[in-house]
Q: What sequence folds into this?
């Protein structure tokens, strides 16, 4: 068992991960030497359980995490390697997983990844062949024939809108069932959201150790967070004003920002988190100060809650207020009013129930018709008809393994920038995708399913992994003839 896995098993708050962000250049350049020296100093501090290496964080191209991870391991340190789906097909992901296992880098954080930014020759094409849930399944499967992976996943509990927040929790449940070992939060500044995640996790059949992400702020970073410059992170007006006031000091606010981070570490430990994931550091000395101060604050962690609590103006809450306004109780909040369901969605539900439900008469007829078309090699006219219906209605991309019923009749390839078939990524804010001009499909799905009382069970299923061998073929035929992911799920359940 790795040191990281052993620490997680204790789940006593002592697990500490320190993030390293690679640079745009080779390991041997000046930036590489500076990062390696920082890594050596961090490794020497036994309070740091492991170092983590990001994978083109923010969508910016940097040195690959495998290279820096190997260097850290060569120094005698332990590393958690981020692995993003954004830049790799599933074949490339599998190859990378084999490489990680071969090098003994078996601590991973499985991520969908931020949408790519500008790179060589312009913007890179986003891949998103599978999502983080599919990657977790892949990593868990890889452990059956090689070294077992300790698999981390992400959760963003800092959403202000119900239809954004609840699906985050539902997806975490799916990640746990897929094989995740630990969940790490997004950066956030609402202590009650930390508390609510803990309460929800306690109620699950497979609760996970939780770690909270803590970013050592600066004035510049605070401004970026405030303008939604990092997907899924928001910093409110009050906190920005505080950061700017602190930054007016001679040290540009560094002492105040380190103390703020230390209070966050103390609070999450006191609440019952397994530990802290610390980012934004400039050197090992800053981590030393944060951890030393955190030990002092932890003795009375509730006393510093108010100092680090910066909630949204009127956020949706999963649970009622606890004994302190910065903490949650165990009492769920009452249901909210449902929204009007679009007529188009209601129509699609009726059609699906009549023609595509396996137990329906329409499904039996469809299976006979498409079986006959396949035998007579007349499938192409039916495929043309299918596309004539689905392209204008759903912006269908002709994947052949249709997930429309999984996402309340929205195409994950046409409507979602990241092709998220297993729940939302963490990048949306107030229902809007991190890619401008797009609405989060999972926010829409939640709102559409609520009137039918299906919103809390929409991810109570096996992970959906589309089969690209079906691309360009009739999705209707593949459904009726048992070739798509619905059939594979049924076969898996029978096995």
A:
């Amino acid at each position: 068992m790795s040191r990281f896995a052993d620490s997680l098993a204790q789940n006593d708050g002592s697990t500490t991960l320190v993030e390293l962000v690679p640079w745009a250049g080779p390991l041997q350049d000046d930036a590489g030497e500076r990062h390696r020296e920082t890594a050596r100093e961090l490794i020497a501090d036994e309070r740091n359980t492991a170092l983590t290496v990001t994978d083109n964080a923010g969508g910016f191209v940097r040195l690959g995490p495998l290279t820096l991870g190997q260097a850290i391991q060569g120094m005698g340190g332990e590393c958690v390697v981020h692995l993003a789906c954004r830049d790799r097909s599933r074949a490339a992901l599998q190859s990378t997983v084999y490489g990680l296992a071969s090098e003994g880098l078996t601590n991973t954080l499985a991520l969908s990844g931020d949408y790519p930014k500008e790179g060589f020759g312009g913007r890179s094409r986003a891949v998103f062949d599978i999502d983080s849930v599919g990657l977790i399944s892949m990593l868990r499967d890889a452990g059956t024939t090689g070294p077992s992976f300790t698999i981390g996943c992400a959760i963003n509990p800092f959403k202000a809108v119900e239809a954004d927040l609840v699906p985050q929790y539902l997806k975490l449940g799916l990640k746990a069932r897929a094989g995740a070992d630990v969940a790490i939060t997004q950066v956030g500044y609402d202590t009650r959201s930390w508390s609510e995640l803990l309460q929800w996790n306690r109620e699950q059949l497979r609760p996970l150790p939780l770690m909270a992400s803590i970013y050592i702020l600066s004035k510049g970073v605070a401004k970026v967070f405030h303008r939604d410059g990092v997907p899924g992170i928001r910093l409110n007006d009050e906190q920005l004003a505080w950061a700017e006031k602190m930054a007016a000091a001679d040290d540009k606010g560094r002492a105040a920002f380190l103390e703020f981070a230390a209070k966050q570490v103390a609070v999450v430990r006191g609440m019952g988190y397994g530990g802290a994931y610390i980012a934004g550091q400039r050197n090992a000395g800053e981590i030393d100060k944060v951890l030393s101060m955190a030990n002092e604050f932890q003795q009375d962690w509730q006393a510093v809650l108010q100092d680090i609590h910066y909630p949204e103006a009127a956020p949706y809450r999963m649970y009622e207020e606890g004994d302190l306004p910065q903490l949650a109780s165990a009492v769920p909040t009452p249901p909210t009013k449902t929204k009007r369901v679009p007529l188009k969605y209601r129509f699609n539900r009726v059609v699906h129930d009549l023609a595509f439900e396996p137990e329906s008469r329409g499904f039996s007829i469809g299976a006979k018709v498409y079986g006959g078309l396949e035998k007579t090699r007349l499938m192409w006219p039916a495929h043309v008809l299918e596309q004539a219906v689905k392209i204008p209605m759903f912006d269908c991309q002709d994947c052949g393994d249709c997930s429309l019923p999984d996402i309340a009749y929205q195409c994950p390839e046409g409507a979602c920038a990241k092709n998220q078939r297993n729940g939302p990524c963490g990048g949306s804010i107030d229902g809007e995708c991190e890619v401008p001009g797009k609405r989060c499909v999972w926010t829409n799905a939640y709102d559409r399913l609520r009137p039918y009382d299906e919103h809390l069970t929409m991810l109570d299923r096996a992970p959906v992994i589309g089969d690209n061998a079906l691309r360009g073929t009739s999705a209707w035929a593949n459904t009726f003839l048992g070739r798509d992911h619905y059939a594979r799920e049924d076969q898996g359940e029978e096995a």
In short: The chain has a mean pLDDT of 94. The longest strand covers residues 15-20.
